[in-house]
Specification:
By secondary structure, the protein is an alpha+beta fold. It has two domains: 76 residues, Nucleic acid-binding proteins (OB fold (Dihydrolipoamide Acetyltransferase, E2P)), CATH 2.40.50.140; 126 residues. It has a five-stranded mixed beta barrel. The radius of gyration is 18 Å and the shape is globular.
């Protein structure tokens, strides 16, 4: 069986044995998958930095019938958020994006829109830096629950409701900065995060860290 190559975004990795990693990744064509990356923790890993959180790459893997985990064999990096690695606040924003995707997305269900959402939010953080953090987090939280199919009636202030309408109608970079007064975006963001946590198995670990910024 030949290797399958899919464009993918790494969500999370877990140590496995002495040298391997269990990797959760979102592929563009097959949705969320989990696999074993053998020798990934060795100095001469065939994956390099391709398994870093939210790194976008062309991942090569083998998938056998009746096996839950795929076998990763290598990757070619398309884009890495390495430029944000030294910024704590931006790192938390990336962690939030990855954690929500890991908790919300079902396995093996492709969603091109969610894939492009992560790419757009990551690019916005990279371009805008900390000035774009709360816009990115709130925009992502809104679209995460909308694409997951459970966006409820928005029981928020009128200003936050108007901001949500603007988020729904515009790309992330075009959302007006006039709507990002602290009280407005906090009202909407906290409502959205409560809704996300209602649909996950546990509370999000990144949320209290973001709130402490």
């Amino acid at each position: 069986m030949g290797a399958i190559v899919s464009e993918s975004i790494t969500l999370r990795t877990y140590p496995f044995g002495e040298a391997d990693l269990v990797v959760s990744l979102l592929t563009r064509d097959k949705g969320k998958l989990r696999g074993i990356a053998k020798r990934a923790r060795k100095p001469r890993s065939p994956f390099g930095a391709g398994l870093e959180r939210l790194c976008c790459s062309r991942m090569s893997y083998y998938q056998r019938e009746n096996r839950e985990l795929i076998t990763l064999s290598g990757c070619e990096i398309i884009h890495s958020p390495f430029s944000m690695a030294g910024n704590y606040a931006l790192g938390l924003g990336l962690d939030f994006v990855a954690e929500v995707a890991e908790q919300l997305l079902p396995a093996g269900v492709a969603d091109e829109r969610y894939y492009r959402l992560i790419l757009a939010v990551t690019a916005h953080l990279e371009q805008q830096g900390e000035a774009g953090l709360w816009r990115a987090v709130t925009y992502y939280a809104f679209w995460a629950i909308r694409l997951s199919g459970f966006l409820p009636e928005l029981r928020v202030s009128e200003e936050a409701w108007m901001l949500a309408r603007e988020i729904a109608a515009k790309p992330i970079g075009d959302v007006s900065p006039l709507g990002w007064q602290k009280a407005t975006h906090l009202d909407l963001r906290r409502f959205l995060i409560r809704e996300i946590e209602l649909h996950t198995e546990r509370r999000l670990l990144t949320v209290p860290l973001l709130d402490a910024l």
